[in-house]
Design brief:
The chain has 2 domains: about 10-325, NADP-dependent oxidoreductase domain (TIM Barrel, Alpha-Beta Barrel), CATH 3.20.20.100; about 335-414, no CATH class. It starts with 10 loop residues before the first helix and ends with a helix. The chain has about 425 residues and is α/β, with parallel strands linked by helices. It has an 8-stranded parallel beta barrel, surrounded by 6 helices. A two-stranded antiparallel ribbon has the order 1-2. The chain is built from 18 helices and 10 strands. It binds iron/sulfur cluster. Iron/sulfur cluster binds near residues 335, 341, 350 and 396.
Length: about 425
């Protein structure tokens, strides 16, 4: 039965938006508001129904939409215009994404729509800076590519897996950049050892926001919960990424295919796609300011906007389904706890390799997968297949078949 919340879109529209029962009214409204192929304004024949709700980004005080646009791969220019129409004005990119093409794509939009720059909360990231000078160069390149003279949130340390990179030099650089007005807020991103990084960051008064891997699986992790609590209490804005928590699967021999079907059937019955349910599970966590999702097409954008607009909270039984699914399928999911397995893996960066494999197998982003794999030092690559991973597999809390997966990654990405 269709239902309509006071201000939310109706469940029937929600289903339609997800493309489950045809092209719905929400999609139709969105299409008439789209930009043309060059990202330039096209007069809207019909206004969007409503804007995505907002939450404060910690102590920055800035209100950001609970859904933010990940634009790590340059997508349709129409996505940029349309996201603004629906209030999704938190745009996330990075210097290195698609060899700069992602930032340039946003920069093209800003060049054609300079009046909209003030409406965008623009977020980007450094790339492999070793010194404050490097950081300054990264920032200047980003400003140029993005056609702007300031970044709203700068992740000046990208992919932190321990805290050694958050030095006083970096702190001084961040404070100077803020004084100059070239960045408004400063933070870091983390895909590995997130609880440890977050807990340590909660004690630093110069970190405004953190973008971290967080999903319905990591919600079961007490350390992660404690670290999120600590950051939230410290006023650090929290941005969740990789919320789909994709797992490795082999279609022909997948022992968990039934678990997938059961979970999917449960949420379809409730009117959610699998992806929408996973996003909502994170959005329902009020400590998380926004969920950053990679959206390169208007269809992806509208499906996620539908999830953000739907005001129905997942019920306890829905969360139980996700919890049971997480337990049943954990052996295919790398939780990023590299401090556990890597000491037993003789210098092999297991976490990075699992992430590369995820980009390849789950996201179909071959370029990103190869780029991550290419970072592995040549001497380590040479011995990837000869290392005994049995101890690493034994200590892995998810009992991942690390040796097999690394061989798979080497075959696909070397
Ligand atoms: S392989 Fe296992 S121990 Fe290593 S990072 Fe992934 S989940 Fe953690």
């Amino acid at each position: 039965m269709s239902r309509r919340d006071d201000k939310g879109i109706g469940r029937r529209d929600f289903l339609k938006t997800a493309g489950l029962i045809g092209v719905g009214s929400v999609i139709t409204a969105a299409k008439v508001n789209a930009a043309d192929a060059n990202g330039q304004n096209v007069p809207a024949a019909q206004p969007p129904i409503q804007k995505v709700p907002k939450r404060k980004l910690g102590k920055t005080g800035v209100e950001v939409p609970i859904l933010s646009l990940g634009f790590g791969r340059p997508g349709e220019q129409a996505v940029l215009r349309q996201s603004l129409d629906w209030g999704v004005n938190h745009w996330d990119t990075s210097l290195a994404a698609a060899n700069g093409a992602s930032e340039q794509s946003i920069g093209d939009f800003i060049a054609k729509n300079p009046d909209r720059r003030k409406d965008i909360f623009l977020v980007t990231k450094e790339n492999k800076s070793k010194t404050p000078d490097d950081l300054g160069k990264c920032l200047q390149t980003s400003l140029k590519q993005l056609n702007t003279n300031y970044i709203d949130l700068y992740f000046g340390v990208y992919m932190v897996n321990d805290m050694v990179r958050l030095t006083d030099d970096v702190k001084n650089w961040a404070q100077n950049a803020k004084k100059q007005g070239v960045i408004k807020h400063f933070g870091f991103t983390t895909h590995e050892n997130m609880p440890q990084c977050l807990m340590a960051a909660s004690k630093l008064d110069w970190i405004d926001a953190i973008m971290m891997k967080y999903d319905f699986r990591l919600m079961q992790d007490k350390q992660m919960q404690d670290a999120i609590d600590a950051c939230h209490k410290a006023g650090i804005g929290l941005i969740a990424m990789k919320t789909q928590a994709m797992r490795q699967r082999n279609a022909s021999t997948d022992p968990n295919a039934e678990a997938d079907k059961k979970m999917l059937a449960h949420f379809l019955e409730k009117g959610f796609t699998e992806g929408q349910a996973k996003i909502k599970a994170v959005m329902d966590d009020q400590r998380i300011s926004t969920v950053c999702s990679s959206m390169t097409s208007t269809t992806m954008l509208m499906t996620n906007i539908a999830a953000a607009l739907d005001k129905t909270k997942l019920a306890a039984e829905d969360m139980d389904v996700l919890r049971q699914y997480a337990q049943a399928t954990c052996s295919g999911y790398c939780a990023g706890c590299a401090h556990i397995c890597e000491p037993a893996a003789l210098g092999v960066p297991v976490g990075d390799i699992m992430r590369a494999l995820m980009y390849h197998d789950s996201y179909g982003d071959i370029a990103q997968a190869k780029a991550v794999f290419a970072e592995i030092p040549a001497d380590v690559k040479q011995r990837l297949l000869s290392v005994d991973y049995s101890v690493a597999e034994h200590v892995c809390p998810n009992r991942m078949q690390i040796g097999k997966l690394i061989a798979d990654a080497a075959a696909k990405l070397a």
